[in-house]
Amino acid sequence: MSSSSFNAEEHKNMLRSYFNGQGFQRWASIYGDDKLSTVRNTVRQGHAVMMDRAFDWLQQLGLPKGATVLDAGCGTGLFSIRLAKAGYKVKSVDIASQMVEKAKADATKEGVAGNIEFEVNTIESVKGSFDAVVCFDVLIHYPAEGFRQAFANLSSLTKGSVIFTYAPYNNILAFQHWIGGYFPKKERRTTIQMIRDEEMQKAIVENGMRVKNSEKISFGFYHTMLMNTSRK
Ligand SMILES: C[S@@+](CC[C@H](N)C(=O)[O-])C[C@H]1O[C@@H](n2cnc3c(N)ncnc32)[C@H](O)[C@@H]1O
After folding, report:
1. Ligand 1 pocket, residue 154 CB under 6 Å
2. Which of 6, 23, 45, 55 is the one with CA 20 to 30 A from 65?
């Protein structure tokens, strides 16, 4: 349902500032090869499981070599680099310039920067036309209203599939999330916004899409719902 208290600009500013600061350090180490605590290690492993599954789904689309893929909210570029290595032409966009710089540096190291176009931009504003769009662990930071705005843009950029993750609503997680607010600030995880199934379905249908596959990925402290949606 639409939440009148959602302010898109404020929300973006909060995310930009987090992912250019403390969030950059935190996530770059999870997505890199630093030694991690047991908890964070499960997040790294769960994320790898999610990317493997998403990569399989993308390959199953049978797109031709050189097909174009938008990686929306690319972070440090893990998935973009994998796509470029597999022969896709990639556009990698992130709201945080620090993330884009890191993605560019890693792609250069891996010898695939020539197959990736980088841009500091948002999932709500990015433009273009792609054979497929992927957006991983970005929409988990959006409440339903923000999700709908972002998904409307992402789905308009392809005649094919949008593969993304979101945080499904469930009472236990909702409770943990709520109680999380009582921990000291430095112990809190990035705010995860849960979306109810019916709100998710509504946004998908409103944009002329349908769900092809979905899979809950749960690994230690990593919990996400991976969705494969395509044009009706
Ligand atoms: C948890 S990381 C996931 C990174 C990457 N998709 C992955 O799975 O490896 C979330 C990323 O989303 C980016 N982000 C958050 N809100 C965004 C927005 N509105 N537009 C573009 N990027 C955004 C953050 O800067 C961060 O790099």
Report:
1. no
2. 45
